[in-house]
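Figure-free illustration: sequence to structure, shown twice.
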Amino acid sequence: MTELLPLDPDELLTTTRSVRKRLDLERPVPIEIVREALEVALQAPTGSNSQTWHWIVLTEPDLKKRVGELYAKSFATYYANQAPRDETGQRVASSAQYLADVMGDVPVLVIGAIYTGGELPTGNQAGVWGSLLPGAWSLSLALRARGLGSAWTTLHLAYESEVAELLGIPPTVHQGVLLLVAYTKGTDFRPAERKPLDKVLHINGW
């Protein structure tokens, strides 16, 4: 069992960030620690306890590079079409560009996917993604507790079929998230600035 950081539950929840420029690209990540964190993630809820998720872990440099190239193409298109951004938006864009530049050098990539049996349902898909994304967030938390960081992205999904072909993912399985995983440069992460609760809280109706 890997030694855990001394974080209480609230601190763990409020300081687990999407880490980009503070990912340590030089320090190898043992696959055993990824497996240990995934064992924790498998305790997350799924609809009807179906557990139809799948976790594709990439450590092979050429595979990571090729996924990174597809991410970079998607990033270039997405951000070229964005409206002018404020200071925070520019900072996020810079971090996302950094990910596009270094994805092939990140020690581990993890793709969270889920069995759908074929095409995604029309209309509200909360039932599908609600059975995958809690597990992905639990994975991020479990990694943070072990001194690792993760960066959560979905931009590669513009090329989901190309990634599926590259990795042999069957057409009955859809990808939902890509996590870049590495040790972090320091572990002193702080809560991020968020909108005041009262701006988004609704009690007994909108």
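We now fold a second protein in the same way, so the two outputs can be compared directly.
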Amino acid sequence: METYMETLGCRAKEASRAAAKLTTVEKNRGLEFVAEELCLRKEELLSENEKDMEAAREQGMSEALQDRLRLTQARIEAMAEGLRQIAGLSDPIGEVLSMKNRPNGLRIGKKRVPLGVVGIIYESRPNVTADAFGLCFKTGNAVILRGGSDAINSNKAIVQVIKAGLRKARLSQDLILLVEDTSRAVATEMMRLHEYIDVLIPRGGAGLISTVVQNSTVPVIETGTGNCHIYVDESVDVTMAAEIIENAKTQRLGVCNACESLVIHENVLEQALPGIVKRLNNHQVEIRGDEKARAVCTEILPASEEDWGMEYLDAIISVKTVASLDEAIRHINRYNTGHSEAIITKDYDSALRFQDEIDAAAVYVNASTRFTDGFEFGFGAEIGISTQKLHARGPMGLEALTTTKYIIFGNGQIRK
């Protein structure tokens, strides 16, 4: 007798075969129908989300994590717009990447094809539900989603709305399946459903990602946590630095591309740090720094060794003082999580060295780390931000959800 997850896996596998045959026109039409349905049923989505928000408040969830969970009219409209943007993007499926002639007359090419069934295990953020569907659907994949218990009402509602859009477009509703049993046992079974799921993508905190990587028998694309640094170089526009750091830290606290760690060259510490601290204080951000930083701004709390590697996802930031660009690069490469790092500088050579030597998926010069996002990169949405180095790295758009197959044309060749 099939288990609950085996039943979902079987349905998704069957749906993926049909999805792989959909034309670009059919897929774009389906995305438009789903986007329209999201906008039409905003009040229903907000009502179900409020159930999750009420439970979060009762459980004492932090404001930053509540913000990740919260749906608003604007966020629902952004989800719909993301689907419309995906519809407007080029369809990568069927693209022939190369074609070469062999001496024996064989023509050997490489063609982009769907992965098949994509499994996603994620926490809190219900907008992931729509984003994941849109990207998987456009690339001819079926998707099995397992969200956290804290967002179950929101996720159920969004999936029902997506299915309604697919139904109006006369497409299989099994192209998106939600694991409604949020128990750990079922999550563990999903991680081992290699017969049905072709790739598994965890999206959430360090604990979730580590659990999936350690327990999965399905190939995993690891999306990482974000201990993102901003380095203030000795050649710097102090006002620009303060504005970028304020944005990167405070625009949204509970996201993986928020700045968690500040690194400052000692030659500009007295010039730059007070203005940065003043801006962060306006947002009630707790600042933890080394002795040199605390000597300049006495309200800064002492930092421990653990602070240098911490992803706070909260109104907290660390400050490390360095004596050179080399020391800044060494410090960041030691403690970063491979996500997003930035340098604020007026020195072109320092900017290029930073970009060349920092080991991360996204490396910025004079810009906020908050731009590491599929929507901002022009992908319409993202399935996650990969911090690994195999297959996909950085914000994962359409191409990251494809694989390739070799296509070979002959005229009777046999191997001797």
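Summary for the second example: The mean pLDDT is 94.
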